[in-house]
Amino acid sequence: MSFYEQKIAGTKVFSGKVFDVHVDEVVLSDGRGSVREVVEHSGGVCMAAVDDEDNIFFVKQYRYAAGKELLELPAGKLGIGEQPEAAALRELKEETGVICSDIHFVGKFLPTPGYSSEVIYLYYAEIASVGEQSLDEGELLACEKININDAVKMAVNGEIEDGKTIALLLKVDKLRKMSRRDWGMK
To answer: Any idea which of 34-38, 112-116, 131-135, 152-156 has the lowest mean pLDDT?
Structure first.
């Protein structure tokens, strides 16, 4: 059996800087009607940049909605019409000063598909050089280099709580243990 939902009507109830919210009436695959509340988001990127000593650059910043400081891989929102790979490289450079080589798309992450359209594009790259940060206005964060094995332990034991960071970190750890010809990514 195949499941689907078809939108028959919708109303935008909020329009903001980061996302919009709309309420949609849908018809389910069994013919019944229902209502869906959706956070519409342009998407984002997350980047794991590894140096030749197996260290990954992280950023530590206060996240207002979570009410605490979090350790995350560099990430950011896609600009209008911006390609995900370009956004990943831009965010990494802005937040950490890192310039990469040999970048690889390693998949997508759907953080909250029950109510949000957000898709986060995940990338892995090797570090070519490190320069200065160029943070956006209102952005305060500190860079930390952590060995990948230590970072994986931190994700597993709950010291790293950010979902996109955990997903990408575990994926990169696994990919680094495989031959590139076995990656089989789309």
So the answer is: 131-135
Taking alpha carbons only, the member of 53, 11, 46 closest to residue 169 is 46
Q: pLDDT, tens digit, for every residue of 86-136?
A: 999 998 988 899 999 889 999 999 999 999 999 999 999 998 878 777 767
**What does the domain layout of the chain look like in residue ranges?**
5-41, 44-180
**Cβ contact 149:174 at 8 Å:** no
CB 115 within 8 A of CB 37: yes
47 closest CA partner among 4, 105, 7: 105
Which fold does the domain 44-180 belong to in CATH?
Answer: Nucleoside Triphosphate Pyrophosphohydrolase (3.90.79)
Mean pLDDT across 9-37: 96
69 tagged catalytic:
no
Catalytic residue among 69, 82, 95, 137: 137
Tokens 């950490």 identify what position? Answer: 96
Residue 19: which of 37, 46, 1 has the closest Cα? 37
Element (H, E) at 149: helix 148-156
